[in-house]
């Protein structure tokens, strides 16, 4: 039976680490979201937000969609817009990696660069107010975490046979941790939901600590059992180790989440710890995180 591209979003591999886990009674697992068609965990909410908006009659093919993004959501939306017949305008920080900008443009999206994510969100709101398009708003749209509640969380529960004890996810838009955390807590309230934020001074793509006025409205901190901070050097070093010691080529936020997961592993025994590998490393080659 022939299938469409959107049918291959989700059901990504859950892989056990061989070397980085060390001599431990714990099982460390990483979910390879880079295996989605557009290369990241954001394929899930991008498809979910467009599908649900269509179903509600809020958008229809041919409309212009506007979104503020640091990268992965923009790439996923650009793919979904191309696939489903929308014009896509993406607003992102000027310091975004070259690969991300080029990938969005390859899918036919228009890219506007501004100074920082807060400015990107403000400009998106301004453009919508001027009638230039419709914003899906990953930061406030419940269809973002819903994608993970309906797919990512159940996949993790299924593939661990319900044995997961800790879920570790970087925090950016927070859709992943909100949706997965909700599902996993409903399945077993004892599961610990662990969020990862950048330490002071760190600038890690995909991991954010928002100013209070910009905290995504989809985020409910009461649903997170623990927040761990990760430094720039630790995130980048773990990203390189993940490639060299496990053969998993991932982005910097994935290294940050895994650094936190390994710290957590040193504190517990007989645990099954799942960490999200958000995307692939090829969209970070120009950042210098990988040696030339």
Automatic annotation (TrEMBL):
Record keyword Transferase present: yes
Cofactor(s) annotated in UniProt: pyridoxal 5'-phosphate
InterPro entries assigned to the protein according to its UniProt record, in alphabetical order: Cys_synth, Cys_Synth/Cystath_Beta-Synth, CysM, P-phosphate_BS, TrpB-like_PALP, TrpB-like_PALP_sf
Source organism, top-level taxon: Bacteria
Record-listed E.C. numbers: 2.5.1.47
Keyword set, alphabetical order: Amino-acid biosynthesis, Cysteine biosynthesis, Pyridoxal phosphate, Transferase
EC top class named in words: transferase
Catalytic activity: O-acetyl-L-serine + hydrogen sulfide = L-cysteine + acetate
Pfam families membership: PALP (PF00291)
SUPFAM superfamilies: Tryptophan synthase beta subunit-like PLP-dependent enzymes
Protein's pathway: Amino-acid biosynthesis; L-cysteine biosynthesis; L-cysteine from L-serine: step 2/2
Residues of the Tryptophan synthase beta chain-like PALP domain: 6-279
A GO term for molecular function: cysteine synthase activity
Family membership: Belongs to the cysteine synthase/cystathionine beta-synthase family.
PANTHER family linked: CYSTATHIONINE BETA-SYNTHASE (PTHR10314)
Name of protein: Cysteine synthase
Provenance organism: Chitiniphilus purpureus
UniProt gene name: cysM
């Amino acid at each position: 039976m022939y299938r469409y591209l959107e049918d291959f979003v989700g059901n990504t591999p859950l892989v056990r680490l061989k070397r980085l886990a060390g001599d431990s009674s714990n099982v460390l697992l990483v979910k390879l979201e880079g295996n989605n068609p557009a290369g990241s965990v954001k394929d899930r909410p991008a498809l979910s937000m467009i599908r649900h908006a269509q179903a509600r009659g809020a958008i229809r093919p041919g409309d212009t969609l506007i979104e503020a993004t640091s990268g992965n959501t923009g790439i996923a939306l650009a793919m979904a817009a191309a696939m489903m017949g929308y014009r896509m305008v993406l607003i992102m920080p000027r310091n975004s990696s070259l690969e991300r900008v080029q990938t969005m443009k390859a899918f036919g999206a228009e890219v506007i660069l501004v100074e920082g994510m807060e400015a990107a969100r403000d400009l998106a709101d301004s453009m919508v107010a001027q009638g230039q398009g419709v914003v899906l708003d990953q930061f406030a749209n419940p269809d973002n975490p819903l994608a993970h509640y309906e797919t990512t969380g159940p996949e993790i529960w299924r593939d661990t046979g319900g044995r997961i004890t800790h879920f570790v996810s970087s925090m950016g838009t927070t859709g992943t941790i909100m949706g997965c955390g909700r599902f996993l807590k409903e399945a077993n309230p004892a599961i610990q939901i662990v969020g990862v934020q950048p330490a002071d001074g760190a600038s890690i793509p995909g991991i954010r600590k928002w100013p209070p006025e910009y905290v995504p409205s989809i985020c409910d901190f009461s649903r997170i059992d623990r927040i761990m901070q990760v430094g720039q050097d630790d995130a980048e070093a773990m990203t390189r180790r993940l490639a060299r010691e496990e053969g998993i080529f991932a982005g910097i936020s994935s290294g940050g989440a895994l650094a936190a997961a390994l710290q957590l592993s040193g504190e517990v025994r007989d645990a099954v710890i799942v960490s999200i590998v958000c995307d692939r490393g090829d969209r970070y080659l120009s950042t210098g995180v990988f040696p030339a």
